[in-house]
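Would you mind giving me a polypeptide sequence along with per-residue structure tokens?
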Amino acid sequence: MARYRTSSPYVGNRRRGKRKFVWVLRMGLTCILIGILWSVYALAQIGSVYRNTAATTAASEPADVGIILGAAMWGDQPSPGLQERLEQGIAAYKAGRFHTFILTGGLDKPDYRYTEAEGMAIYLEQHGIPKEAILLENKATSTYENLKFSKEIMEEQGLTSAVIITHTFHGNRSYEIAKALDYSNPKLSLTETHVLKRVPTILREILAYTKWKIDSVLLAIGWK
């Protein structure tokens, strides 16, 4: 009587396990490749601010307000990175590029005495900027909120044009958000950083830019 060979359950399970491992490996490699390609794209977009002449070269044209986007406070003092933005704003103001500051940024920690906006205001007044030239926005916790709430202040005050003051690595995302919020021909006044570590800063900006692109899609379809 003829006998037929059959595969044991062990062999079948091993084959299925191997196929599953190959599938997981391929999916993992695909995700890594997509992540690398997206990071390259995001880096190109972050660097595209250098090519955006409409936003940067026109920053010398007079505007109603200069919006300094908030960054970290160190206790009662603006962090060195935030001080770089403040110095950029002071230089632009003294050059006659705008007549009013909007300082935007909320409270970093519950035990801090000042919001980012208040800390910036103190710094500006200590450096010769008159108090009547300063408007405060004390609620924002993100770049999107910085620009959204600042635009609301502009509308309340009858101000129509703005120069956005921040770091170069932050400029393109800020400009995209301003355009999404229907700013009228927003300008950029940017400073390079000499105090922030380059690699961690760029990695954080890639993540922040990725989040903004996701948020922009959600906003477009009305889910946010």
